[in-house]
Design brief:
The chain has 533 residues and is of the alpha/beta class. The strands form 2 sheets. Strands 1, 10, 11, 12, 13, 14, 15 and 16 form an 8-stranded mixed beta sheet that branches. Strands 2, 3, 4, 5, 6, 7, 8 and 9 form an 8-stranded mixed beta sheet that branches.
C-alpha cells in the first residue's frame, strides 16, 4: 500500500488557533462526561456505601477481565433533557471482555433516582438492543432499579415493552442474557430477570416482584413482607424465578463470570496479529487539522493518515470524483474499507462510492463512512446531469449493503448527504461524533434564508407589505434556534450517535468497534435494488 503523506505545519498560527478551539470543546465534553458519571446525590451514595454496596461503575470494574477495555456507549443520552436524571440516565452501558468473551454490560445506577427508568434511559436501552443483536453479543444486566419513572410513564410505556421483546427475541437467536439482581427489580422491571436466560439473585438484598407490599395491601388486602413477596431465597427455593442464589455482590459477579465462561458464543471471525504499526503521524495533530468551524474545508486524507495502520492507504479511483475519498486500510490489524467526504457530493463522487460499496461487499470487508459534507450538489447544471439519480444509487447501495458499517461524524453532515454517508437512520453498527460536528436537514443559515424567501414570496402573492425589520428579527431568532439543534450536543442527547469522542481517541474507538464486528463472520451481498441509470 502507499503511505499517505501530510501537508500540515503544526506551528502554523491557524493550526494553533484551531487546536485551541477544539481543546475548549473537548474540555466541555469531558465536563459533560464527568457529570454522566454521577452516582446520584451524596446522601444516596453514602447510604449505599454504609450498606456495603458497590456503586454501578465499581460493579462493572469487578466484572470485567483484568485490563479489559470498556467501550461505553451513549454516555450523554438525554443531555438536554430537563428531567433531572442527568446525562446518560440511570444506566451505564458498554462492551468489554468477561471471561475472555466480548459482552454487552448494562449496569443500573440504583443510587440515582432509585435506578428508575426515565425516557432517555428507555430509548437508550432500545439502541443498545440493536447493537447487541447486530453484533451477536451476550448481555449481562446488573440490576438495581425501581422500574419506570412514573411521571414519564406515557413516554416510556411502549419503549419498555419493546425492550422486553428484544430480550426474548435475542434468546431465540441464541444470544444469552444474564441478570444479576443486587436490589430492587420491581413492577415492569421484574420482567428483566424474569425474561433473562440466566438469573442470579443476591441473598438478603434482591427484591423482585410485580407489586410491593403497599400495592398488594391496597389491591388484595394481603399483608406481606418484601422477602415473602420477592426475596432472593423465596425465588431461589419456591418460585424458581432465580437460577442462582448469591451470598453477596462479589459472589454474584463470580457466578456471572462462570456462566459466561461456558456460554457458546462462537469463535472470533478474525484475530489479527498484534504486530501492526501505528500511524506515521501524531493523533494529537488532529486537533489542529479538523476545522472547529465545519465550513472550513480540509483534506480528509490528513485525518485518515492519523488513524490507520502505518498510514498505509490503498486509494481507489483517486483521480475521479475527488470530493469522495475511497480506499482500503487496516486499523489495529483489522481490514476495512473507507468512504470519506472531501466536500460536497457530485454525481461522480456518488457513483464512485456506489461502486466501492459493491466491491467492499464482494470482498466481505466492513466499511467506515467519514462524514464531512453539506450534501449533494444543487443547481440547474447538476440537476440536468442527474444528481438525483446518482444520489439515489448511493443511498440504494448503502441501504442494501450487508457488510458491517461504522460511521464517524467529523464535520458537516446535512440532508441526503447524511443518508448517503450512512447516518443514524441507516443502521450503522456504531456511530461516533466529534464535538465540532453538525448535522440536520440543512445548515441553520441556509434554512433561515430559505424561510425568508418563502415569506417574502408569500407576502407578495397576497399583496402584503413586508416589514423588513421584523423579517430580519425572525431570521436571527430562527438561526439561533436551529444552530442549537444542529450541534453534536443536541444529536448525542437525542441519541443520533453512540457517543461524542475526543478526535485523538478515534483510532482506539474504531479499533475496538472493529474487534466487535469481526467477532462473527462477515458476508457481503451482490443483490441491490434497481439502480436508476
Amino acid at each position: 500500500m502507499a503511505q499517505i503523506g501530510t501537508q500540515i505545519n503544526p506551528n502554523d498560527s491557524s493550526f494553533l488557533e484551531n487546536k485551541k478551539k477544539m481543546l475548549e470543546s473537548i474540555n466541555m465534553l469531558e465536563s459533560y462526561l464527568e457529570e454522566s458519571k454521577s452516582h446520584g446525590t451524596e446522601k444516596s451514595v453514602k447510604r449505599a456505601l454504609s450498606r456495603k454496596k458497590m456503586l454501578a461503575r465499581e460493579r462493572i470494574e469487578y466484572l470485567l477481565d483484568k485490563d479489559s477495555p470498556f467501550l461505553e456507549l451513549l454516555p450523554l443520552s438525554g443531555l438536554n433533557n430537563d428531567s433531572g436524571f442527568g446525562p446518560g440516565g440511570t444506566n451505564i452501558t458498554g462492551i468489554g471482555l468477561v471471561s475472555n468473551k466480548l459482552c454487552m454490560i448494562q449496569s443500573n445506577v440504583g443510587t440515582k433516582k432509585g435506578g428508575s427508568v426515565d425516557y432517555a434511559t428507555s430509548y437508550k436501552s432500545l439502541r443498545i438492543g440493536e447493537i447487541i443483536e447486530k453484533n451477536k453479543l451476550p448481555t449481562i444486566i446488573l440490576v438495581e432499579s425501581g422500574g419506570v419513572n412514573l411521571p414519564d410513564q406515557n413516554k416510556i410505556f411502549l419503549n419498555a415493552g419493546a425492550n422486553f421483546k428484544q430480550i426474548t427475541q435475542r434468546s431465540k437467536l441464541g444470544l444469552s442474557t444474564i441478570s444479576l439482581v443486587f436490589g430492587n427489580a420491581t413492577a415492569g422491571g421484574a420482567y428483566v430477570p424474569g425474561m433473562s436466560d440466566y438469573t442470579i439473585l443476591q441473598k438478603n438484598a434482591a427484591k423482585v416482584f410485580l407489586a410491593g407490599p403497599p400495592l398488594v395491601k391496597m389491591a388484595t388486602n394481603e399483608i406481606s413482607s418484601d422477602e415473602e413477596l420477592g426475596g432472593a431465597e423465596m425465588h431461589s427455593k419456591i418460585s424458581g424465578v432465580s437460577d442462582y442464589l448469591a451470598e453477596n455482590e462479589i459472589d454474584g459477579i463470580r457466578i456471572v463470570r462462570e456462566i459466561v465462561e461456558y456460554l457458546d458464543s462462537g469463535k472470533p471471525h478474525l484475530i489479527p496479529d498484534d504486530n501492526f504499526i501505528s500511524p506515521k503521524f501524531s493523533a494529537d495533530e488532529l486537533l489542529g487539522i479538523i476545522p472547529f468551524n465545519p465550513k472550513i474545508p480540509f483534506d480528509i486524507r490528513e485525518l485518515i493518515a492519523r488513524i490507520i495502520d502505518n498510514s498505509d492507504f490503498s486509494e481507489f479511483k483517486k483521480e475521479y470524483g475527488k470530493t469522495m475519498v475511497t480506499g482500503w486500510a487496516k486499523i489495529h490489524g483489522y481490514p476495512l474499507a473507507i468512504i470519506a467526504n472531501n466536500g460536497v457530493i457530485f454525481s461522480e463522487s456518488a457513483n464512485k462510492a456506489t461502486q466501492f460499496i459493491q466491491l467492499s461487499n464482494k470482498n466481505n470487508v466492513p466499511i467506515l463512512f467519514i462524514n464531512n459534507t453539506t450534501g449533494f450538489m444543487v443547481g440547474k447544471k447538476y440537476e440536468e446531469g442527474g444528481i438525483i439519480k446518482s444520489g439515489a444509487k448511493l443511498i440504494n447501495a448503502v441501504s442494501n449493503s450487508e457488510v458491517p458499517h461504522l460511521t464517524l461524524m467529523v464535520g458537516s453532515s446535512y440532508g441526503a448527504g447524511n443518508y448517503g454517508m450512512n447516518g443514524r437512520s441507516y443502521d450503522p453498527r456504531f456511530l461516533f461524533t466529534y464535538p465540532n460536528a453538525k448535522s440536520g436537514v440543512m445548515g441553520s443559515e441556509q434554512l433561515a434564508g430559505v424561510m425568508e424567501i418563502i415569506k417574502v414570496q408569500s407576502a407578495k402573492s397576497y399583496g402584503k407589505k413586508i416589514n423588513i425589520k421584523e423579517l430580519e428579527k425572525e431570521k436571527e431568532e430562527l438561526i439561533k434556534k436551529m444552530s442549537e439543534k444542529e450541534t453534536a450536543w443536541f444529536s448525542t442527547s437525542e441519541m443520533w450517535d453512540d457517543g461524542i469522542i475526543d478526535p485523538r481517541q478515534t483510532r482506539n474507538y474504531l479499533g475496538f468497534s472493529l474487534a466487535v464486528v469481526y467477532n462473527q463472520p462477515i458476508k457481503g451481498t451482490l443483490n441491490y435494488g434497481v439502480f436508476r441509470m
